[in-house]
Amino acid sequence: MLFRKFTSFTIVASVLLTGCSVVDRWVYRPDINQGNYVTPDAIDLLQVGQNKEQVVFIMGSPMLTSVFGDRVWYYVFRQQPQHGAVSQRTYVVYFDEMGIVKDIKSSELAGSKSLEEMNKQGISDPIDTKSDDDTPES
After folding, report:
1. Which residue among 14, 30, 73, 106 has its CA within the 20 to 30 Å range from the CA of 91?
2. Which tens digit of pLDDT belongs to each residue from 82-122?
């Protein structure tokens, strides 16, 4: 009888302690990838003087736009690996009143990895950064 109580207590205690940091690495956490994945090639193609259609063709649709008009577009990519640090890259495209790019700025969260480093981590949805020129001809 004492053995059953001890076994029951052990099982209940184990279940209650699974959230503690000792077993944190055993708990599954999915990779969380959010936002616009912008390749370095796309950033190289983006230039001051382009119109909005060209920007959408190169970068895709923006994740956010300014609430005070359509003159500022935000492209944000954020990755949170299972038990790793969060990485975030943000690109901001500013337009003039005619819809022409007048400035491009980028920022990153402190300690963030580059897009290539994020891709090498083995994230759940790897992104192919190879261009068509890298594929062998058949």
Report:
1. 30
2. 777 788 888 999 999 999 999 999 888 877 766 666 666 65
